[in-house]
Design brief:
- The structure is a single chain.
- This protein is of the alpha/beta class.
- It is 23% helix and 21% strand.
- The radius of gyration is 14 Å and the shape is globular.
């Protein structure tokens, strides 16, 4: 799913695997995407073209036995833009306040538990 808010385009593809990622790329133009929620908790099974235009990448991952998230993928994404990870930064949110240019923030960076953040 792709959406746009205040000029920021966000792609949230869910837990799709490479075959579905390739199908999305064949059927859609994602050249204006700014933020991508990385599929399947940052597993190594990704089609890198899905991330080519984005500047920020969100990865939801924590301790698991599946090998997520993949270090090589993280390094590749970091070479393109900013990677926000729930295992490092806690809850991640996308929000706008006034003329805020960076709509992605996290509870740990704000120094608050996610339920204590005042959402505007």
């Amino acid at each position: 799913m792709a959406c746009e808010f205040s000029g920021i385009e966000i792609l949230v593809p869910g837990n799709i695997e490479p075959g579905a990622q390739e199908e999305l790329l064949r059927k859609n133009d994602f050249s204006e995407i700014d933020i991508v929620k990385v599929p399947h908790h940052g597993s190594k099974y990704q089609v890198m073209a899905l991330f080519s235009s984005a500047e920020q990448f969100l990865i939801s991952a924590g301790p698991n036995s599946c090998g997520h998230l993949n270090d090589k993928l993280v390094r590749e994404l970091e070479s393109i833009g900013i990677v926000q990870r729930t295992d490092n930064f806690g809850s991640i949110a996308i929000g706008w306040s006034g003329s805020q240019e960076k709509p992605v923030f996290s509870s740990r960076r704000l120094g608050k538990e996610w339920w204590k953040i005042i959402w505007h």
